[in-house]
Structures are given as C-alpha cells and as structure tokens.
Amino acid sequence: MNLDLFLQYVVAGITYGTIYGIVAIGFNIIYNTTGIINFAQGEFVMLGGMTAVTLARVLPLPAAILVAVLVTTVVGALIEILFIRWLRHPSVLRMIVITIGLSILIREVALHIWGEGVRALPYFTGTSVTSIRLGGVYISPQVLWVVGISAVVVAILGGFFRYTLLGMQMRACAANRDAARLCGISAKNMVTLSFMLSAGIGALGGCIVSPITYVSYDSGVPLAIKGFTVAILGGLGNSAASAGAGMLLGILESFSVSVLPAAYKDVISVAILLVILFVRPSGLFGSAEVARLKEF
Amino acid sequence: MTLLSIRDVSRRFGGIQAVDNVSFDVPHGAITAVIGPNGAGKTTLFHLISGFLRPDRGSVVFGGAEILGLMPHQIAAKGMARTFQQTRLFPKMTVLENILVGRHLHSRGGFVACMLHLPFTRREERAVREAGREILEFLGLSGQADAEAVRLSYGQQRMVELGRALACEPRVLLLDEPAAGLNMRETAEMGRLISRIRERNVTILLVEHDMSLVMDISDEIVVLSYGQKIAEDVPSAIQRDPEVIRIYLGEGDA
Amino acid sequence: MRKQGLQIAGFAAVVAAIQLATFLTGNVYHLTQLTMSAYYSLVVLGLCILTGYAGQISIGHAGFFAIGGYLSALLTTHNFSAHGGRVVSGLAAMGILARRPDLYGGELLTVHPWPACILAVFAAVAVAYAIGGPVLKLKGHYLAMATLGFGIIVYRIVLGTELVGAADGIYDVPAFPLLPGIAVSGKSSLRVMNYYVAWGFVILGMVFLMNLVRSRVGRALASIHGAEDAAEAMGIPTARYKLKIFVVSAAFAAVAGVLLTHYNGGIGPSESSVMKSVRYLAIVAIGGMANLWGALFMSLILNYLSLRGYFGSFDDAVFGVILILIMLFAHEGLLRRQLLDQIRGAVIRRGGGDDP
After folding, report:
1. Which of residues 109 through 138 in chain A touch C, CB cutoff 8 A?
2. Could C219 and B73 be called an inter-chain contact, meaning their C-beta atoms sit closer than 8 Å?
3. Which of A278, B143, B193, C257 could pair with C68 as two cysteines, CB 3.0-4.6 Å apart?
4. Mind listing the domains of chain C with CATH numbers?
5. What letter does residue B148 receive in the DSSP assignment?
C-alpha cells in the first residue's frame, strides 16, 4: 500500500470516525446525567438526517439543518418527558428494554414517513466529485465540513459544561444527583436537557455526514452500536476520549475494507466492541477501579 | 482446636488501608465476634475471608486448608456460610424457597437430570424440602413458609437469611451485623437464636456493632480500628480494656 | 407435580382443539402459520428461561436460531458430488451423505438432515459456550450490548456471505425425515401432521423447562437473578450456571432454527436480524418474564397474528409498542403468577399475624 492510498484510507476513516464520536458523545451526555444507555441514540442521527433532507426541498440548506436539529431536539425532550421522567427507580433491564422499544418505534415511524429509500443532503460546497488536493490526498470538501463542524460542536459543548451555570448544574447532577438536588437543582429538568442536547447533537451529526454516508430509516442501529463501541473504548462518560476513540474505530474500519470484503465492515467494529467488553470494559483510557464502581 | 485461622491479611483500596495485617484464630465450636467503630474494616475482613474480595497479602486457613484465592462458592462448598449486612434475600421467592437454595450444596442434580426429572432428583427434592421445613421449624417461621420472603417484617427477613445460611449445614457461619436495624426485642431474640445455632455444633464468627449482643453471646472478641487489630480477649476483659474504651467512647464513634 | 401434568394435558387439548377448529371452519391453511408459531415458541421458551428466570438479557437469540437454521440448510443443500474423493464416498457409505433427486431430475449428493441437524445444533451450542463465558461476566447495559453485538455479527455474516446465499438466503431445503413416516416438511399434504409434530416439540421443551424450573437448578437460577452475591455465598457456582443456561437457551433456539428451516424449505437473513431478537424478547416480556406459560401463550397469539399479516406494515412497530407499554406500565408482565402469589401471601400473612 503506498502512502497516498494509506492517507486516503485515513481520511475516510476520520470522516466516519467523527460521526461515531458524535454518537458516542450523545451516549455520554445521557449516561452521565442518568446512568442510562439510550439505545435509541442512533435514531436521533437518522431522524436529523431524514428531516433535513425533506426540509432541504423547501428551505435553504442551513435553515433546513437548523430546523431538523430543533425538531430532533424536541423529539428528544418528548421522549424523556413521556417515557423516562415519571419512572421511579427503574431497573437497568427495564430502561434497556424501553429505549430499545423507542428505537424500534422511531425507526418504524420513519419507515412510514419516508419509506425504505436511501437519501442524502446535497454537498455543502461543490458536488460529490469536487475535491481538494492536500499533498497526495484528495479530500472532499464535505470531509472538511464534517470534521470542522464536529470540532466546533465539541468545543462549544466543552465550554458549555465548563463555564455556563446550566452546564455546571448538569455536571453536578452527574457527579451526585442527591447533593445536586439539595442545592436546588432540578435533577429532572437536567435529565430532559441531557436528552435534548444529545438528540440535537446526534441530529446535527446526521445532517453533516448524510452527503457522504447517506441516510435511511434503518441506519440508526449500526450507528448506535458503533457509537457505543466508541463510548466504551473511550471509557463511558468521557466525551473527550470518545472523540479520539471515534477516529480510531473509523480508521480501523476503513483499513479493514482493504483486507476483508466491505460487506463485513460492520462485523469488524462489532467484534472490536466485544473484545473490548471482554477484555477491558473500562475503556482504553479509563481505570478499571472506577468502572467497577459504576452502577450496573 | 482452631477451625479458621486468619494470618496477616491486608487489603488496600486506593489510599485507604482497609484491613492491615490482621491475624486471629476462630476456635471450633465457639462464638467469636469482631467489633470496631464504623469504617474499621470489619465488613471488608468478612469479604476477604469469604472470598468476595481478594486480599493483597495474607492467608486464611479453614479446616487445615488454605482457602485464599478460591471463589466464594468454592469456599461455601468447604463449609463456610455467610449472611450479609444488608439482607440479600431472593425476591419473588417464598420463605421456604429461600431456605431451599441453602440446600444447594447438599443436593447434586444437574441440568440434564433436573430437566428429565429423574427418579433420583425426585428423592433428592423430597429430602431438600424436608430439611428446609426442619430449618423453618427451628426458626419458628413454619407459618410463613409460603409467604414471599421480602414481604416479611425486617426482623423476620434477617432470620430467614440466617436460616438460609444454616441450611448449608456450615462448619462455620459468618454473620455480618446480624442485629443491624433490629429493635431491642428482636436483637435479644437474634442473640438467643445465635446461641441455639452454636448448640447445633456450628462455629460462629460475627461482626457486630451492637455491644450488648456481642458481650452476651461471644466467647472471644477481636477489636479492629482503622483496619488494625488492637485487642483480642474474652468479653469481660475487652470491656475493661482502656484502648477499646478510648476508641469507642473517646472518639465518639459508637 | 400432578398440577404440572394437568397443565400440559390442558395445553395439548388446546392444541388439538385449535386443529379441530381449523378443520371444522375450513381454515386448514391457518395451520401453516400455527406450525411456524410453534417453532418460534421454542426460541421464546429458551429465552424465557434465560432472561425471565436467570435474569440474563439476550438481544442476540436470533443469531443462534440462524446458526442452527443456516448450517442445516447449507449442509442439506450443498452438492458434494462434485467434490469426489475418498472422504465424500466414505461419508456417503456411512449414510451421512445421501443422494436425492433435485428439482430438474438430476442427482444431488447432500448431507442427510439428521447429521446436518446434529451438527448445526452442536455448532450453535459450541458458539454459545465460546462466547457465553466472557459475555455473561457482563451485566446490565454491557450484557445487552454484547448480545446485541453478537446478533449483528451473525446477521452481517449471513448477509455478506455468498456461500449462504447473501441477501437471498438458502432455499430448496429438503424435508427432514424425523422417523419413518414422520417428516418435517412444508408440503400441504403433511400440514396436519407437521402441526402436531411442531407443537409436540414445544410440549416436550415445555416439560423439560418446567421440570428445570421446579428443581434445585431452577431455584439456583432464580437466586442468581435475585441476588447473585448471595447465590455465590450459598455455594452456587454462578458463572457456570449462567453459562449452562445460556447454552441450553441457545440450543432451544438452534433446534427451532433447524426445524423451521426444513419446514419452510429455506431460510433468509431476516431470521437473524436484530428485530427478530427484539421480538422474542418482547414476547417474553409481555408473557410475564419469569412465566413459561405466559410466554408460550403470547408467542402463540402474537406470532400467529404477525405471520397471518394482521399487523400489516406495522409488524415491527407493534412489537416495539408492546415492549414499551409493558415496560412502562406492567414491567412484571401481564400474565403474572406472582400476582396470585401476592394475594395468597397477603392472606397467609393476615392469618399468621395472630401468632405471638
């Protein structure tokens, strides 16, 4: 394999890796405030992408994306309010099954609205054949959009959690729910907010990658499982590590195509997930001691 | 005669030395109590002895064989049963069924035999149920046999848990704060029950906070403080030990 | 024990009554879907004992079904006559390979369904053993994701492998002669017999599992579900028990996969999809989790309705909604035996309250 081809694989890996990282961050936001793994996380991405594609017919692209993100955010809020908020001390098994049920429901609704067709947003700049030459590598401008927007989102999110009152309240809930409640923070609202945030971020991710990866009613589950792989790889709850782990998985997957038939691409990432779960469930960067203390 | 011998057992959690070089012997047929203020490492010590935690160092010899490093179920199979500080009854099972789980080690039907309901599993099941009812009789809970265990009063739940451990027919019984959360009457009843269990030729090692219970029934008391053994003697001597009085009264932990 | 015999006899009567009803109303063709429901019920029963009783969730059971079904289908359709060689002729002499005519009058040399079935179930059991060890160390979300991951791997492999027909699956799978005169086959002339064969398997499985539940092993599994550490302290080797029940459960799914594949005359990748696994889980949930009879009746009803197309294009959505509603409002399941136990328990407590 020559260097140019190598870099080409790396670029492809980074593109996919970014979206996995975004899904993983969505997992982390909800996990941190609730201890729940939201199995419907991939559906947020799908919903965002699908809604934006539909809206793009009548609205200019940026407006379509904005509205799609808002719509998905509202869906996230509704899900939390209707299905999660009023449960008292739900068991982990119960939460898993509920979010799986939600994932199926969202997917089936999407199937009835949009059908089985595969859709995509137009490229943000240029077309599918436009490319920028960087060294020996041809990069689609969309890749730059994906990486750029994702980097901005991660930065804003970091700032939000670190510097704003709301963000700090969410972190307080994550650290100690009861103590946060004693300080007058509404833990329930924080949970709703975390669902909204994670839905919105997922939807934005779905919009920006859809020109490259396409989107269809059933693209949620593979995204969810890969996002989960990445979240585990980075250590559940650790968003910064997730971004890095996303790249790692994306690149691994991209190179796997050069060895194995493309049809087995998903097999690779899921196999990686299983290996990590078996060997080091605390993630590459997490400590085993901490992972054991988490409630499972 | 020593049944259980704990030698230089230590365990660290991060920066805290939870159990620090603790050694003592549990004589056969006696009631030995481990006491100490909150956070002294009593429960950790229990987990180390019963295999739920691995010590960093040390040795635990039970009936002449090293049991350190064995899985909890292997240690149980050697004749050590235990209860938990917070009752760990099996929900959705009746009182009798909870006790019957304790007979697991005294029956041997495997998956295939049980699926086929072979004649020997039938005989075994009858024997298991008989033994279970005998335990309920001993506890005075025969009337509650078919009630859901977790719906009993708290005091009765503790008795069921004790009965479940007793059903294992252990050589040594580890009781983790058997009187925790019980009122005075229930505590006294628990004390009588523990004494009656000793009469069944079961050696008892217990961790306890309630001094009255410990002083009444124990033959030997081990005192832990900050993970270290600071005293070991008969109850009357422990009551007069200035060091013990200091940690219990001086620091206001009791 | 007598109660259990009555329950089984009652259920057998229901099975016979359904057949009679289809006969009298001239709806004999409904037996086809009812037969398929029976095989899916085997998977559900296996999952019920694993998830409901032993408390170990699996969102990958369609994977075991597919391993059984696909392997049996592959072995009984793959033509070995082209391979020649001493091994092939040796196997043919032992009766493991058998000649049969194909659709066009030619001759095929394929594995006889019996050895194929045994091999297929054995393979599923071996896979369950291999992955069960590490998978069942996990709990909660991790366990759910790992089993889901296993299901996805199986699905992607069958979908991406030409040897097993990729998206088309394997078809022209021959009938499975269980005993002389009894064959698992989709032929309409054998419809009634196959209906009874299928439900016979279910009843057999039900007897096995009911025996298991009422035994010391059943109690040990329930205790693992209730409080794993306390179960360990009672001397129950929890890891080994979890692995064994996982394997039993996988074997049920694999047997169902083999039999349904021979009944349908083929298998496609959708049988291994995540949605199938979720569907089995939904049925166990609505049946009351730790309730074999509840799971069985729900499986009979829901699979039948689904296979008859009553849910139309909302098929998957129906199961998703069921899952959510059950978990939100009746997470102990609808058909709960515990409800009766609770009432009885309350009465007994009131009676026992007079004791000093």
Report:
1. 109, 111-112
2. no
3. C257
4. 2-352 (1.10.3470)
5. B
Average pLDDT over residues B190-206: 93
Cα(A72)–Cα(A198) distance, rounded to whole angstroms? 10
Q: Tell me which residue in B89, B97, B114 faces C211 most closely, judged by beta carbons.
A: B114
Do B164 and B175 sit in the same domain of this protein? no
- pTM, entire model: 0.91
Chains that touch C (3 or more CB pairs under 8 A): A, B
Same domain, B232 and B186: yes
CA atoms within 13 A on the CB side of C285: 29
Give the nearest chain B residue to C332 (CA atoms): B92
State both tokens at A148. 């750029």
CATH (domain of A43): 1.10.3470
Taking alpha carbons only, the member of A230, A232, A274, B70 closest to residue C134 is: A274
The number of angstroms, rounded, from the C-alpha of B139 to the middle of its chain's C-alpha atoms is 16
Q: Could you say which of B77, B88, B148 has the minimum Cβ distance to residue C230?
A: B88
Inter-chain CB pairs, A–C, below 8 Å:
122
Q: Tokens representing C156?
A: 């992607």
pLDDT tens readout for residues B12-65: 988 889 999 999 999 999 999 999 888 888 999 999 999 999 999 999 999 999
Residue with tokens 């057992």, as numbered in its chain: B9
Using CA atoms, how far apart are residues C276 and C59, in angstroms rounded to an integer? Answer: 9
For residue A239, what pLDDT is reported? Answer: 78
How many H helices and E strands in chain C?
A: 14, 6
Question: Residues of C numbered 137-166 whose beta carbons fall under 8 angstroms of chain A's beta carbons: which are they?
Answer: 137-142, 144-146, 148-150, 152-153, 156-157, 159-161, 166
The number of domains in chain B is: 2
**Chosen from C327, C331, C332 to mutate, greatest number of chain A CBs within 10 A:** C327
* Beta-carbon separation of A102 and C320 below 8 A: yes
